[in-house]
From TrEMBL:
It comes from Cohnella pontilimi. Residues 1-81 form the HTH asnC-type domain. GO terms for molecular function: sequence-specific DNA binding. Keywords: DNA-binding, Transcription, Transcription regulation. InterPro entries: AsnC-type_HTH_dom, Dimeric_a/b-barrel, HTH-Siroheme_Decarb, Tscrpt_reg_AsnC-like, Tscrpt_reg_AsnC/Lrp_C, WH-like_DNA-bd_sf, WH_DNA-bd_sf. This is Lrp/AsnC family transcriptional regulator. It comes from the Bacteria. Gene3D superfamilies: 3.30.70.920, Winged helix-like DNA-binding domain superfamily/Winged helix DNA-binding domain. Pfam families: AsnC_trans_reg, HTH_24.
Length: 163
């Protein structure tokens, strides 16, 4: 991937609403070159989706988000690929990551309430043949996501004193 594309990705990662004309001005290149590079990256699935980061705590929407550690046995010939695919096809599942460490997959799901999340874990996730164990953690509050701080805390104005 060339430097122009990397620079474009850095800019649209921070603000996906930037028009090609603004990006071209910022990078000192022609707008047509930026538009062509963006189109090519979209076609190659380098750019998969443009999305907004939303502070859901400011919205009257009672959603529950959970992170689930999944320990599983890899399948011969496909490793964790087919297990991850079975999991990410569920509509509740927002993200699936292959991890190093004590567990194999990290699954992020969203439900209407705790009961719905518990039902997903017990009736869908735990029943997959290769799944050995799960551990569920509920997100109580998000302070920062994708580099964006949700709550700005005011400085209390006191001087920092150190011994």
């Amino acid at each position: 991937m060339n430097q122009l594309k990397l620079n474009i990705l850095d800019l649209i990662k921070e603000d996906a609403r930037l028009p090609a004309s603004t990006i071209a001005t910022m990078l000192g290149v022609q707008e047509a070159e930026v538009a062509a590079a963006i189109k090519e990256m979209e076609d190659d699935h380098v750019i998969v989706k443009y999305a907004a980061v939303i502070n859901w705590s400011k919205v009257d929407d009672e959603k529950v988000t959970a992170l689930i550690e999944v320990e599983c046995t890899p399948e011969r010939g496909r490793g964790f690929e087919s297990i991850a695919e079975r999991i990410y096809l569920y509509p509740e599942v927002k993200s699936v990551y292959l991890m190093s460490g004590a567990y194999d997959l990290l699954v992020e799901i969203e439900g209407k309430n705790l009961k719905e999340v518990a039902s997903f874990v017990s009736n869908k996730l735990s029943t997959i043949e290769s799944v050995i164990a799960t551990k569920t953690f509920f997100i109580l509050k998000k302070y920062k996501q994708d580099g964006i701080i949700f709550e700005e805390f005011e400085d209390d104005g006191r001087l920092l004193v150190s011994p």
